[in-house]
Write a structure and sequence with these properties.
This protein has three domains: about 200 residues, Ribonuclease H-like superfamily/Ribonuclease H (Nucleotidyltransferase, domain 5); about 90 residues, Orthogonal Bundle (DNA polymerase, domain 1); about 80 residues, HRDC domain (DNA polymerase, domain 1), CATH 1.10.150. About 50% of the residues lie in helices and about 10% in strands. It is built from 20 helices and eight strands. The strands form two sheets. It has a six-stranded mixed sheet, with helices on both faces. Strands 1-8 form a two-stranded parallel sheet. Helix 16 runs antiparallel to helix 18. This is Ribonuclease D.
């Protein structure tokens, strides 16, 4: 393991050069099978890593499907692929499956890429690499400006990418995102090598791929904004019913649920507990034309939740398998509170020493679980086994194991 090192501060960098147009010009959107096969062949004959990005329509459409896929490889040029008419990109997969794919914040794009047949064997995540390298800002535009000296206009990341035809300025933005990724990968790889963190990064990237697609969230309705303002199980049952009705409608219409009915409107309706459709229509949001037409749907959901038998109502909070909230530790188990305090202090020191965010040194949830329920006997070996079982990578076990062993043995 190398010695800690700090990247050059980016606040001394010269003024960034605006990156306004793709160096090879804006390629036409690939929207036919013939052109897709041609570009896949070009990718296969290129060299080096493949830059990959995807644009979604979060906040506009239901789900997280890709509405544009961008790729670039040395010798192959940039490809802008429309996955709406081309929902199967296995021909592209076959041409680059054995190459390293470069993505920024890979966890965001890998699920939607997998839906259209793009699954990498090796990746380099420039966002995660920037975190490990200790850069103060890790957004794509910030890292590109810091390390490459270019400024990217980030004005369309939240656009409705399901729009057809896509505006030219959006396509320019999309092409520029992959224009710089391989150069950025090389700059970050050099920093990580200098800092002795190349192996850390490799293990992190492998862990992303090994994790696979995220599991469906349990009780997703509990993520409704404002749910903590509901005090009874009956109110939660009504909210769940209303959330399910909204989700069903949003899925059928392929519209983001929040655009069908805002979270705040659902919570307000539950709190108001209207006893007629007319009373529901008196509430804000429900007075609008769209929701007047849907008043039967919304009121029906509220009525179903209101009529649920007591045994079918959701618990006030979802049972957890982890330790209690940290603010209760001092009362419930003072020794555990002391262990956690010592562990956090040691991790904070390591974070400063290696210039890596604490949450990237080790999962905070794993730290809490270990300090609440230490293994027996409390040895370096059992701590290491616990960390590995919790998903820690070997570099994390090696780096944090000694101080965590000391913490669990202290109290």
């Amino acid at each position: 393991m190398g010695d800690p090192a700090t990247p050059a501060p980016d606040d001394e960098a010269p003024t960034a050069v605006p990156l306004l147009a793709p160096r090879d010009g804006l390629p036409p959107v690939i929207d036919t099978s013939t052109r897709l096969v041609e570009y896949a062949e070009a990718l296969g004959s290129g060299s080096g890593p493949v830059a990959v990005d995807a644009e979604r329509a979060s906040g506009y459409r239901y789900g997280q499907r890709a509405y544009l896929v961008q790729l670039r490889r040395n010798g192959s040029g940039t490809g802008l692929i429309d996955p709406v008419p081309l929902p199967d990109l296995s021909v592209v997969q076959a041409s680059i499956v054995d190459e390293e794919w470069v993505l920024h914040a890979a966890n965001q794009d890998l699920p939607c890429l997998a839906e259209i047949g793009l699954v990498p064997k090796r990746i380099f995540d420039t966002e995660l690499a920037a975190r490990l390298a200790g850069l103060p800002r890790v957004g794509l535009a910030a890292v590109v400006e810091s390390l490459l000296g270019y400024s990217l206009v980030k004005g369309h990341s939240a656009a409705d990418w399901s729009t057809r035809p896509l505006p030219e300025e959006w396509l320019v933005y999309a092409a520029l995102d992959v224009e710089v990724l391989v150069d950025l990968r090389d700059a970050l790889a050099a920093i990580l090598e200098e800092q002795g963190k190349s192996e850390w990064a490799r293990q992190e990237f492998d862990a992303i791929l090994a994790a696979g697609p995220p599991a469906p969230k349990q009780d997703p309705w509990r993520r409704t904004s404002g749910v903590h303002g509901l005090r009874t199980r009956r109110q939660l049952g009504v909210l769940r019913s209303l959330w399910q009705a909204r989700d069903d409608l949003a899925r059928r219409r392929d519209i983001a649920p929040g655009r069908v009915l805002p979270d705040s409107a659902m919570v307000s309706a539950v709190q108001a507990d209207p006893r007629t459709e007319a009373a529901l229509l008196e509430l804000p949001v429900f007075r609008g034309r769209a929701n007047r037409k849907l008043v039967g749907t919304w009121y029906g959901a509220i009525a179903r939740g209101r009529e649920l038998p007591e045994s079918d109502l959701p618990p006030q909070s979802r049972p957890g398998d982890g330790p209690p909230p940290v603010n209760r530790w001092a009362d419930r188990d003072p020794a555990a509170a002391t262990r956690l305090q010592q562990a956090r202090a040691g991790l904070a020191t390591l974070s400063q020493q290696w210039n890596v965010p604490v949450e990237n040194l080790l999962s905070p949830d794993l730290v809490r679980r270990l300090m609440w329920s230490p293994p027996e006997p409390r040895t370096a070996e059992t701590v290491a086994e616990t960390l590995r079982a919790g998903g820690a990578r070997e570099w994390q076990v090696e780096l944090t194991g000694p101080l965590l062993t000391e913490a669990v043995a202290a109290a």
